[in-house]
Design brief:
Layout (H helix, E strand, L loop, with lengths): L2 H9 L11 E7 L4 E5 L12 H11 L5 E8 L9 H10 L5 E6 L4 E5 H4 L13
Parallel strand pairs: 3-4
Antiparallel strand pairs: 1-2, 1-3, 4-5
Bound molecules: tetrahydrodeoxyuridine (THU).
Length: about 130
């Protein structure tokens, strides 16, 4: 299944009664496995989670460690980029050159990279003192 098909399908399961903005995400790992996630909102609004975070959590739960590619889809006028927190979450598991594809349900597609979305990313290396 393509990342587009996977993200489109999981988006239907999004729990978004507050924003009414359903998002689907799919990651492909370096081993070829595909993991999906959707946004899950909460009556206590800050407790909601993004589709990207769900897909990453599913990957980690399945034993995946490296993202090769990620795709996000929403029903928006323009392809919606990941929020700041999700950019950092993606960068934890993806190399800077990894492809990020942003899609609309109407068929628009923008291709970018992890590095373009989060220049100057903070990484574990920044905690090295030597
Ligand atoms: N959302 C995502 O799941 N991913 C994005 O890339 C942008 C925003 C969700 C969070 C919230 O449930 C809703 O979209 C509106 O912000």
């Amino acid at each position: 299944m393509s990342l587009l098909e996977a993200a489109t399908a999981v988006r239907e399961n999004a729990y978004a009664p507050y924003s009414r903005f359903k998002v689907g995400a799919a990651v492909r790992t370096v081993t070829g496995a595909v993991h999906v996630g959707c946004n899950v909102e909460n009556a206590a609004y800050p407790e909601g989670t993004c589709a990207e975070a769900g897909a990453i959590a599913a990957m980690v739960a399945a034993g995946g460690t490296r993202i090769a590619e990620i795709l996000v889809i929403a029903d928006s006028a323009e392809p919606v980029p990941p929020c700041g927190g999700c950019r950092q979450k993606i960068a934890e598991f993806a190399p800077p050159e990894a492809a990020v594809t942003l899609c609309t349900t109407a068929g628009q597609e923008v291709r970018t990279t992890v590095a373009a979305l989060l220049p100057g990313v903070f990484t574990a290396a920044h905690m090295d003192r030597a």
